[in-house]
Amino acid sequence: MTGFTLLIVALLFFVTSVVGVVTGSNSLITVPVMFEFGLDEKVAVATNMFGLTFMAVGATIPFLRAGQLDVRRLSPLIGVTVAGSAIGAALVGIITNQGIRLIVSIAMIALVAFSVFGRGSRRGSGNMGSDRWTLSAIGIAATFVLAIYGGLYSGGYVTVLTAAFVAFFGMTYGGAIAATKLINVSSSGVATLVFMWQGLVDYKLGAILAATMFAGAYIGAYFVTWMNETWLRRIFLFTVLLLAIKILYDQVRVN
User: Fold this and answer.
1) In angstroms, rounded to a whole number, what is the distance separating the alpha carbons of residues 25 and 87?
2) 97, 111, 156, 255: which could join 41 in a potential S-S bond, CB 3.0 to 4.6 Å?
3) What pTM was computed for the model?
4) Among candidates 126, 156, 145, which has minimal Cα distance to 244?
């Protein structure tokens, strides 16, 4: 990539990281962009995951400082996420480049379905410390299955995981946003280690993306800790709607 191209990509990753703290689905934009700039499919997925790890860390710090995360209660979910993400990342080394593109396309279409048929969030304070949520077997199973996808690609992973935490554990929307950021640290972190072992990470590009995504996520998470449940839900739904329109446009253009 040229210097100008790197600047454009870095700015795009920064903006998606700020918004992605609430919405997730960053990879549905960033990975296809790297495809367009000629990056190998597997390298694009791996390098994006490298940046996502720093984004997840940057997003988690403000929630920890605000006391909105109960790490002990979330530890079982972190455990199943580590196992699932390692499996998903290992699959990337096996799947062909064409298969990677197909998975990305399917994920983009699936997000449209999720935005149309997904369940709404229940109202609440958004403070995880006062959120009366409990673990359930179906929720833990869903977390594991989603972690496999999260390690494989991650496009829309946090978006669906947020909805799953609300639906299966009874978290408020704000609480689920905070929880999924911590969970995503383990998901993207383990996947990145597998990709590094496979030699798929572009470290030059990854370092630039890591810095911009960390900064964007930190800024975004700082504002989220001050936002109420209604505004979080509005931003989420509006952004998912825009993504759905983009995905449908891309499909029509290809056909």
Assistant:
1) 20
2) 97
3) 0.74
4) 156
User: Helices 203-224 and 3-23: crossing angle, nearest 10°?
Assistant: 40
Please state at what angle helix 229-254 crosses helix 3-23, rounded to 10 degrees: 130
Residue 138 CA to residue 95 CA, distance in Å, equals 28
Give Cα separations from 97 to 3, 9, 100, 102 (angstroms): 26, 21, 5, 9
Q: Among 5-19, 136-150, 174-188, whose mean pLDDT is lowest?
A: 5-19
Of 209, 247, 85, nearest in space to 157 by CA: 85
Q: Secondary structure of the chain in the HEC alphabet?
A: CCHHHHHHHHHHHHHHHHHHHHHCCCHHHHHHHHHHCCCCHHHHHHHHHHHHHHHHHHHHHHHHHCCCCCHHHHHHHHHHHHHHHHHHHHHHCCCCHHHHHHHHHHHHHHHHHHHHHCCCCCCCCCCHHHCCCCCCHHHHHHHHHHHHHHHHCCCCHHHHHHHHHHHHHCCCHHHHHHHHHHHHHHHHHHHHHHHHHHCCCCHHHHHHHHHHHHHHHHHHHHHHCCCCHHHHHHHHHHHHHHHHHHHHHHHHHHC
CA–CA dist 3, 180 (Å, integer): 34
User: Cβ distance 169 to 138 under 8 Å?
Assistant: no
Tell me which residue has tokens 């990539």.
1
pLDDT tens digits, 56-82: 898 899 889 888 888 999 999 999 999
Distance of CA 5 to the CA centre of its chain: 24
